[in-house]
């Protein structure tokens, strides 16, 4: 009896660890199709150029993933801060936290898209998941990019196709 109870506990504990909870959220200040004055909005589609503020340490190579994703969405990424921004320029900020589940993995991250001229938030996206069940990096970024793209009228990402 004691052995069966112990086996059941081990199986349940392993399943809980393997299938941890995850949350993802993308909020749009001006989503595609909606604006404050009631006219048709375009979300990120109205932006043509972006500067990504890179982190000193980027263990999971988020900067290149953002660079590639924005380019695929038709947004030119520039390497230096935009000196005289227009209404079609973005500043993109990101942060992340690593987790440990027998290896380091991308546990959570946040993207912030700001209008470079006004400093107002255009879009925010966040992802959090405990456990390595969705892979170390790619599956997590793919889910967040697809959510962001869907809310802005873009097709799914092609970056992580095999």
């Amino acid at each position: 009896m004691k052995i069966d109870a112990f086996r059941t506990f081990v199986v349940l504990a392993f399943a809980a660890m393997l299938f941890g909870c995850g949350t993802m959220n993308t909020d749009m200040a001006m989503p595609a199709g909606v604006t404050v004055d009631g006219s048709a909005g375009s979300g990120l589609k109205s932006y043509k150029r972006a500067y990504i503020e890179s982190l000193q340490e980027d263990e999971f190579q988020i900067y290149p993933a953002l660079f590639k994703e924005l380019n695929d969405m038709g947004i030119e990424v520039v390497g230096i801060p935009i000196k005289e921004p227009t209404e079609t320029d973005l500043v993109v900020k990101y942060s992340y936290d690593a987790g440990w589940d027998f290896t380091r993995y991308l546990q959570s991250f946040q993207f912030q898209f700001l209008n470079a001229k006004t400093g107002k938030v255009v879009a925010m996206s966040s992802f959090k998941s405990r456990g390595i069940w969705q892979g170390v990096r790619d599956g997590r970024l793919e889910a967040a990019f697809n959510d962001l793209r869907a809310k802005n009228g873009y097709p799914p990402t092609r970056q992580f196709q095999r």
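Residues 15-21, 31-40 have pLDDT under 50 and may be disordered. The first strand starts at residue 22 and ends at 28.
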